[in-house]
Design goal:
Layout lengths: L1 H6 L1 H8 L6 E2 L2 H4 L3 E2 L1 H9 L3 H24 L8 E2 L1 H10 L4 E13 L2 E7 L8 E8 L1 H11 L5
Parallel strand pairs: 1-6
Antiparallel strand pairs: 2-3, 4-5, 4-6
Helix pairs in contact: 4-5
Length: 152
């Protein structure tokens, strides 16, 4: 969510202030769900062309994720890629993967960077937005593996 909103701050602000029912899954939630090396091996071995294409795509991202984690000081895990978009999509049909709160968030642009500021109560500049605050990571990753026919 964060990358997508920051890609076009002006458009993001307009969308969040448009009065449209909105659900966001912030990066502090999506960083809790990832795939591991065993998942990539299973994707590569799959008879599904989609799964093999996913394995190739993950192969392009793996060095980027590795460098990101090393540079952030995160403890070493077998993290190959994060499941940002799959989690957001899954929450569109099943919110139970995450805990949600309705928050009064003011979308604004500070020095060209998109930000949200939480307010105590909603108002014209701080609409109520449904925001994921936690994820059942093990349950979601199991769901993702099952949907792709991977070993649980």
């Amino acid at each position: 969510m964060d990358y997508n909103l920051c890609a076009d701050p002006t458009a993001s602000r307009r969308v969040l202030l448009a009065g449209i029912s909105t659900r966001i899954i912030p990066i502090d939630v999506t960083l809790q769900v990832w795939i591991e090396s065993r998942d990539v091996r299973a994707l590569e071995a799959s008879p599904s062309p989609l799964n093999r294409a996913l394995a190739r795509a993950v192969g392009h991202w793996r060095p980027i994720i590795t460098a990101f984690l090393a540079g952030s000081g995160a403890r070493a895990l077998d993290t190959v890629a994060f499941l940002h978009d799959p989690l957001a999509l899954a929450c569109a049909y099943d919110e139970s993967f995450c805990t949600f709160e309705d928050l009064a968030l003011e979308p604004r642009i500070d020095d060209g960077v998109f930000r949200t500021v939480e307010h105590a109560a909603p108002g014209p500049d701080a609409p109520r937005i449904r925001c994921a605050t936690a994820v059942d990571a093990a349950r979601f990753v199991a769901h993702w593996r099952e949907r792709l026919g991977l070993p649980l």
